[in-house]
Amino acid sequence: MSRFDWKWTIHANLFILRATGLWPEEGSYGRNLYTLRTLILTILFTLGHNFFQVCNIIFVVDSLETFTSDIYVTSASFLSLIKSYYLVKNLKTLKTLVMILKKRLLNPANRNEEILIENGLNSWKIVYQAYSCSTVVAFILLSGYPILDGSFREYRQPFPAWYPWDTKKSPVYEIMFVYQVVSQGYLATVIGNIDTLIALLNVFIGTQCDVLCDQLRNLRCTESSTGRRKLYECIQLHKEILTFTKKSNQFYDWIVFVQFFTSAINSGLTLFQLTVVSHASGQFYSSIVFESAVFMQIFMYCWFGNEVEIKSNNIPYNAFRADWVGASVHFKKDLLLLIMRSQKSLKVSALNLFYLNLNTLMKVRG
User: Fold this and answer.
1) What is the pLDDT of residues 147-177, one digit of tens each?
2) Which residues touch 176 (CB under 8 Å, ≥6 apart)?
3) N or C: which end of the chain has fewer CB within 10 A?
4) What is the pLDDT of residue 223?
5) What pLDDT, in 10s, does the model give residues 191-230?
6) Per-residue H/E/C for 117-128
7) How many CB atoms lie within 10 A of CB 185?
8) Which of 269, 255, 264 has the alpha carbon at shortest distance from 71?
């Protein structure tokens, strides 16, 4: 059977990460034009925009209402800096994961396994589209807020920031307005693609668990050398799943931890904002949309992390469904070892402090 084409799921992520300067083709940054472009983008949009927003927070820290209205947007922007740092820091690990997928995983042996993989990837695609839509809507509303409420006539910028020059005159106001929109769009793109990439890694783990379950419950002719060879292939696949899960967790440990920490703070600040602004104001609806986008981030992590846990729990049950009754003693021992090893479910976590599952989602959003 021809190699299954899974790259359509990850191609968009890698393409956008490369466009934003976070995916060098050579595997690492060197003395070339791509590194120079990445440095310019980082200084201009990531560091520059975050610096001016943090300066603004320092000046408004004495005003609780202004502070809370500004900090949740600033913290979301600052999150992109942290995620970009850990992505670049663990770039070698991510490249290794992609190579494992290309060489050893996601290569179905029959049409049934191909359908199992396609179903998992299609579910990710639906969540990816929903998350992208919520992010775009939140970005448009926040960026266009001065236009929607008419405050652009008072030279109000779309995002809170402090600049050492006067932005309340033309054309400086228009230039800084465009700069903020472009910067925030760049940061939102980086955050969105890192989030969906992490979710996709968990989808790959879940689909491989589905494939392993399918292979185990269809083990036949277990008394022959063919049956023993197929069991050995199942054991090897299980080992590769464990390795891939461990490396994936190492890649996004800190990213997920910082995301949950920031999201918890942002949720509290956003809810506070909803109590002090008018329900008929544009800021009220912008805050709701922003909170929806934050919820989608946490939901995506927890949902696909929960899928990994559920699907890995199915492995020992499907192994027991194999035709082992008339098998040799060696086959039964190997199968029993696989069952015992797989009884410990796979769980993805953030620094081993909490697991990514629906229970965590209910605790965070409850």
Assistant:
1) 887 888 888 888 889 999 999 888 999 999 9
2) 157, 163, 167
3) C
4) 67
5) 989 999 999 999 999 999 999 999 998 887 666 777 788 8
6) HHHHHHHHHHHH
7) 15
8) 269
pLDDT at position 316, please?
93
DSSP conformation class of 350: E
Long-range CB contacts for residues 154-161, cutoff 8 Å, separation at least 24: 158/184, 159/53, 159/73, 159/77, 159/184, 160/53, 160/56, 160/57, 160/60, 160/69, 160/70, 160/73, 160/74, 161/49, 161/52, 161/53, 161/55, 161/56
Phi, psi of 207 (to 5 degrees): -65, -35
Pairing of strands 354-355, 349-350: antiparallel
Check residue 61 and give its pLDDT: 82
Burial of 333 (0-12, 13-18, 19+ CB in 10 A): exposed
Handedness of CA 17, 21, 24, 28 (dihedral sign): negative
Dihedral pair phi/psi, residue 237, rounded to 5°: -65, -40
Q: Cα separation of 321 and 182, whole Å? A: 56
Write the CB contacts of 220 (distance below 8 Å, at least 6 apart in sequence).
227, 323
User: How far is the C-alpha of 167 from the C-alpha of 60, rounded, in Å?
Assistant: 18
